């Protein structure tokens, strides 16, 4: 059963790891994919891989913490594929160090990407799906670290805990409005074999 055949999906952080795997799997199941990432080189390689397997995909360079770049991603997606049904907010960064060690600058940077980026993605994703008018699904990548506390991941815990509860709020809003847009957070444990290179929760 191809539940996503001909659906249009944006995958942030699609150049690496879980985002890359999600983009490739969604394409294999028939979705048209917009891969976004700050890493242009690897993002384009994922698009090439999808096309080589017979799928449809484009790459858009995007920093998820920048609002104008979200505007561009939604506009370009609608211009290219005409619709938006799925948004996987996978882009994320990690940061070790106890509450006594983490600097305010590093804390703010992580919150900007993991939490503010997910907020912007959800807000602009809803906008794009409302314009499409066919409902949709937003998947926010939280973590087991968004459910529990870890002495060495205070900023990451705060960002992913924020993603967890923010997602519930946004989902309830969409349900109340009757948009037909589902918003869920997912909470993976430690996955080292992601085809990714940069982020690993297990590197604490
Ligand atoms: N791997 C794990 O064990 C694990 C467990 C739980 C949750 N997660 C979450 O899953 C998501 C993906 O993790 P992963 O292991 O695949 O990591 P990864 O490092 O392999 O991939 C993350 C991608 O996000 C991109 N990125 C970083 N900052 C960005 C920004 N500002 N704008 C756009 N793109 C940006 C990176 O370039 C990279 O391609 C993250 O949100 C992470 O917190 C991972």
TrEMBL record:
<keyword id="KW-0560">Oxidoreductase</keyword>
<protein>
    <submittedName>
        <fullName>SDR family NAD(P)-dependent oxidoreductase</fullName>
    </submittedName>
</protein>
<dbReference type="InterPro" id="IPR020904">
    <property type="entry name" value="Sc_DH/Rdtase_CS"/>
</dbReference>
<dbReference type="Pfam" id="PF00106">
    <property type="entry name" value="adh_short"/>
</dbReference>
<dbReference type="InterPro" id="IPR036291">
    <property type="entry name" value="NAD(P)-bd_dom_sf"/>
</dbReference>
<comment type="similarity">
    <text>Belongs to the short-chain dehydrogenases/reductases (SDR) family.</text>
</comment>
<dbReference type="GO" id="GO:0016491">
    <property type="term" value="F:oxidoreductase activity"/>
</dbReference>
<dbReference type="InterPro" id="IPR002347">
    <property type="entry name" value="SDR_fam"/>
</dbReference>
